[in-house]
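User: Fold this; tokens only.

Assistant: Input:
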Amino acid sequence: MKALIFSDLSILIVIARYLNGNELEENLLLCYPLTKRCTGEDIFNAIQGYFCGNEMDWAKRCGVCTDGGKSMSGCYKGLHGRIKIVAPHVT
């Protein structure tokens, strides 16, 4: 008999798709543990912290695709809503 052990740890994985010349590339941008809660604010702050630490600008982003969870899709408190505040052009 095997025992399964679960923890209260969520991992935020951000994958970037971008054009490199004429080639579409996809790379892991961020893998970050979310040890507290997993609210839209927590997720946004993790991404924003990475962007600031690596001098990345939201103005150069064009779109966001998520799993559609409540913390992601909320238009006010979700990740999408928080991104719209700093980058209204992002779809």
